[in-house]
Design a protein that fits this description.
The structure holds two protein chains of two kinds.
Chain A (H helix, E strand, L loop, with lengths): L1 E6 L2 E6 L6 H7 L18 E4 L2 E4 L12 E3 L9 H8 L9 H15 L7 H7 L10 H12 L8
Parallel strand pairs in A: 1-5
Antiparallel strand pairs in A: 1-2, 3-4, 3-5
Helix pairs in contact in A: 2-5
Chain B lengths: L7 H4 L14 E7 L5 E7 L8 E3 L23 E2 L5 E7 L2 H9 L2 E6 L6 H4 L31 E9 L2 H7 L2 E9 L11 E7 L2 E6 L4 H12 L6 E4 L16 H11 L3 E4 L2 H4 L4 E2 L2 E9 L5 E13 L5 H11 L9 E9 L5 E2 L6 H19 L3 H8 L18 H11 L9 E9 L4 E10 L2 E5 L9 H13 L6 E2 L19 H19 L3 E8 L2 E2 L6 E2 L4 E13 L4 E14 L4 H20 L29 E8 L15 H11 L12 H14 L1
Parallel strand pairs in B: 1-12, 10-11, 13-17, 15-16, 20-21, 26-27
Antiparallel strand pairs in B: 1-5, 2-4, 2-6, 3-5, 7-16, 8-14, 9-10, 9-12, 14-15, 18-25, 19-20, 19-22, 23-24, 25-26
Helix pairs in contact in B: 8-9, 9-15, 12-13, 14-15
Classes of the chains: A alpha+beta, B alpha+beta.
Chain lengths: ~160, ~700
Amino acid sequence: MSVTLHVNGRRTTVACEPADMLLDVLRAEGLTSVRETCRIGVCGACTVLLDGEPVSGCLTMAGQVEGREITTVEGLGGTDPVQRAFVDAHAFQCGWCTPGFVLTARRLLEERAGGPPLTDAEIAEALGGNLCRCGSYVKIVEAVRRAAGTDGRGRA
Amino acid sequence: MSALGVDGRVTGAQRYSVEIERPGMLHAAFVRSPHPHARVVRVDAAALPEGCVALTPGDVADLGLYGCQARDQRVLADVARHAGDVVAAVAAPTRAEARAAADAIEVEYEELPAVFDAVEAVAPGAPLLHPDTAASAQEEVSIGVRPLPGTNVCHRFRLVSGDVDAGFAEADVVVEEAFRTPSAAHVPMEPHAALAEWEDGRLTVWAGTQTPFNTRADLAGLFGLDPEHVRIVAPPMGGSFGAKTFVRTEALAAALARKAARPVKVVLDRAEEFVTLNRHPATIRVRLGARRDGTLVAKEVDCWVDTGAYADCGPGVATKLGYAGVGPYRIPNVRVDALAVYTNLPPNGAYRGYGAMQSVWASERAMDVLAERLGMSPLELRRRNLLRDGDRFATGEVMHDVRFAECLQAAADSVSYEADPRGKGLCVLLKGMQTPSRAEIAVERTPVGYVVRCASCEMGQGVRRSIRLMAAGLLGCEPGQVEVPDPDTDSSPFDTRTTSSRSTHMMGRALAVAVEDLRRNGGDRGVGEIRNEGGLDPDTGQGIASTHWHQGAAAAHVSVDEETGRLTVKHLHGVAYAGRVVDRPGAELQNEGSLIMGLGTALFEAIDAGDGQVANANLSDYNVPALGDLPARFTHELIEREGAEVHGLGETVLPPVPAAIGNALHSLGIRLHELPMTPERVLAAVDAREGRR
């Protein structure tokens, strides 16, 4: 079997079973920012954006994503304002969970672009599905606030 | 370093130990005992699929025992001593095939009686786990292990200072309370991972580990090799918190690779993490005596420290837990008796704080019980007895650069404790650093800057950045010109290990020596070494517990819904004495991370393994703090002093968190003795208070 994936703007056909999990398929493709921690969809370490929405790679089957757009942090290229905000705010320690937080935060900021400022409760709610065992949360919230100071495309 | 694109942690470019690959490598899976205590009668690998390799008892018969402080562990257990003990292993071309192959191995067991509580395990007639304990230890890890033969006690630590009976005779008020803490999981986001490869009789292991040189020594002993014929490379870890210390999966990977004659990689799944290494549960009885004016005159601390199926570093944890139980106080008469005890639970080992949390929970809760009996403010009782510069601690050593009073006051002020102490609690902490220990580092000049080689392992605590910043300062260059390669026992000089918040303190000093050596010799390479001598006599507790003290405090302000038992931490504040801060954002992250981990320990983290089976071995049933669990006010501070040396702070504010919250509850008449402080326990304590009225 094979499945055609649209990952980070590129189209690739990979040999896999439709029931293989997206987490394993993407890692096999070398996208190692998608990480395995809990494998039951509670930790957010394997978060990817599927047509712009955060999903857990460990709960998403390859067959479900045929023809849909997948984004991982590798696709942001290091130039995204959310990535810059995470670096500027020192919002990570070991860095394992960081890609998942960056992608979830990116979606939150997109949703709220042009809206009222995010409250702490809204940020906590939106990032509640991403765990950071190093406990970098204070600076992660700071990073989201910094990134929210722009229009999501790096312009203040 | 803040230049965009450079930090691989935001771009996904960072590689961890799970990502190490070698040509032709196989993947491992383990066959684990379902029984908490059982003799392995027969292992049958006849149904092994083609292309797979099985490791069965006959394959490891030539190998002896390993273990960092007591050699009590076999590569494959001949007697399974906990549910999850590895009794056979397989290697196969993929992880999925390896798991299927492991399922094809049949094992016959003869079940044995088991014990799951450290107090019960020392009672006469308890099932014995290691009737013939071999208590030999590696030089680097040795603490003078004192097993009690014929019992489940693998180490007994005693501390005696003054005359405790005479002390209690002088006391106007004596309180005696018992406290318990459960086992907990480290939950590093990245699981344990190791890859072993043999070449010409030489073993190389790439592993996420905090202890490359200890692992090298233990593997060398196990396989009968010179330590120089074992090489450990330690890539960055996706968190560890003590989980990745000493030999965990490395011996199995090496034995499988030897059998398969190919490189073998091990990556544990999440459920396996919960049976690999956890935190020591402890039962601690504190007896504390004071004069009417609040002067402490005597203290007794009895500790039962559950080290699980294997000793690992349990003797060291029991020792540190034991002397930390004295607290940062001047007490003329002290007796401590701490037992590290085998039980049929998964092994327990180093966990951020190394026993300090357990004894601080007991000791600092007992202080508030005593304050209540004396009719004195808990803050005033502490102030009156805190160690000051030049005082002698119960171990006989003289204390220097003492900042306990400052830490405590900062904590009290953060919650306006003196204005109104209701719903508020305080805790002050004394914690030692690994002593004796040794750190070596090398600085090499290159055409574009410098390479700094050392065995300090990066697990998210930021040691690489600290070393880079310190080196740049000493060498007068940009941090970006300093390269810090992954620890590699072939090229990194010796270091005791990356534990006990010692790396920035020890390596920083060694680095200054190395840079001075480079200047003086005028060549391309300078080396520096720092040795901290000391250690405690395990029978008297006298000596040098720590050449460098971690000092901290915490304050909590809570409210309780007395209908449901729901406990809300409205404000949590942590204080660490930092001496001199090397990397401010890094130090803040370590403080914040310690507080959050302490919050999980205080409120909800506990491994449920009462019958020997871990019933919550996943991240749905075992919760770790998420962003929404942070208190509405969550603050901390680093106390600095002009001209001070660098103080370690990777763990300091974790241990005081549970007791600060417990003491806040105590101020409301809600008396908790056991962690975590779940709504059920809080509600029961509210009911008990109503019963007293």
